[in-house]
Amino acid sequence: MYKLIYFNFRARAEPIRLILALKGIPYEDIRIDKENWPEHKNSFTWGQLPALEIEGEGRILQSIAITRYLARKYNLIGANEYEAAKCDEYVDALSDIRIGKV
Predict the structure, then answer these.
(1) Residue 63: enclosing H or E segment and its boundaries?
(2) Tens digits of per-residue pLDDT, 32-86?
(3) Rounded to two decimals, what is the model's pTM?
(4) Are residues 30 and 82 in contact, defined by beta-carbon separation less than 8 angstroms?
(5) Distance of alpha carbon 67 from alpha carbon 4, whole angstroms
(6) Which of 25, 66, 67, 95 falls between 20 and 30 A from 88, CA-CA?
(7) Cα separation of 70 and 58, whole Å?
(8) 3-state class percentages of the chain: helix first, strand second, coil last, to nearest 5
(9) In which order are the strands placed within the sheet that holds 27-32?
């Protein structure tokens, strides 16, 4: 069972939610209100969200790390190394667009 922890809006957690929905994977969607974030911040590595808690294993933080983890686990990374690299290219390009590099 997974627990996805993020703020009460889409943004960086939405691709994670979409992967989980696409594959029909149950998870608990925990949403933290921005005004309550300061009291939770120190309990997360890097002091950031989103976080994915994996029962019996631990937490993964950083949205791209989480989406890559889920993509590998649920066979969404392509059939070979080239296709996997193209998937990484798209993820990295979207990240650049998000921060205004493109």
Answers:
(1) helix 63-73
(2) 999 999 999 999 988 899 999 999 999 999 999 999 999 999 999 989 999 999 9
(3) 0.86
(4) no
(5) 12
(6) 25
(7) 14
(8) 55, 20, 25
(9) 27-32, 2-7, 51-54, 58-61
